[in-house]
Specification:
alpha/beta, 7-stranded mixed beta sheet, 3-stranded parallel beta sheet, 22% helix, globular
Length: 196
């Protein structure tokens, strides 16, 4: 029996943020990404949302022995959903693939919530390393709710799996945010709670 895989479309695309085996590019059909707010967290989460006619790039990786406990804990704000029939990949055999997404019933208006720049940095670094500059642009174009304010926490990262970006990767983040006219606040303007 083969191991199941997860499809990651955000921070899980960045293999520096996890050690799951056999990571490889894949596409999830019928979905987009969106920054969403929930009652559970003071900052927004990047979630997959169903969107007929759309698709998003990402990464699949194996979950050895179908031991989902550690990944379920990491993705505690999300529901794990069966997605095998929606994922295009280059594995030579049929494979069970799951995706994590926030339950639509738990999504709130993003007012009063913020995107962590340290979180976004991790996502963009992953897309740059897997898909290059075009993949980064595609990420920004297939993600909704960029009107949500972004808190610049790079100097003191709040995101627990933050990574050091290259100068090129940092410029990719900043240039795309400028292109989208994103609202960026300094950390002293947007106090963060004690923990994520």
């Amino acid at each position: 029996m083969t191991d199941p895989y997860f499809f990651g479309y955000g921070s899980l695309v960045n293999t520096k943020s996890h050690s799951y085996a056999d990571p490889r590019p894949a596409t999830l059909k019928g979905w987009r990404r969106a920054w969403v707010a929930t009652a559970r967290y003071p900052v927004v989460l990047l979630s997959g949302v169903r969107a007929e006619g759309h698709s998003i790039q990402g990464l699949i990786a194996a979950v050895p022995g179908a031991d989902w406990d550690a990944l379920d804990a990491r993705e505690a704000g999300y529901a794990r959903l069966q997605a095998s029939q929606h994922v295009d990949h280059d594995l030579p055999h049929p494979t069970d693939v799951s995706v994590y997404a926030v339950d639509p019933d738990h999504i709130h208006d993003t007012s009063g919530h913020m995107i962590l720049l340290s979180y976004l940095d991790v996502v963009v670094q992953g897309f740059h390393e897997v898909y290059g500059v075009d993949g980064v642009r595609h990420f920004f174009e297939t993600t909704d709710n960029w009107h949500t304010p972004i808190v610049d926490d790079r100097a003191d990262p709040f995101y627990p799996r933050h990574q050091k970006l290259t100068r090129t990767q940092r410029a990719l983040v900043d240039d795309n945010l400028a292109r989208l006219s994103a609202q960026i606040k300094q950390r002293h303007e947007a106090p963060l709670p004690a923990k994520f």
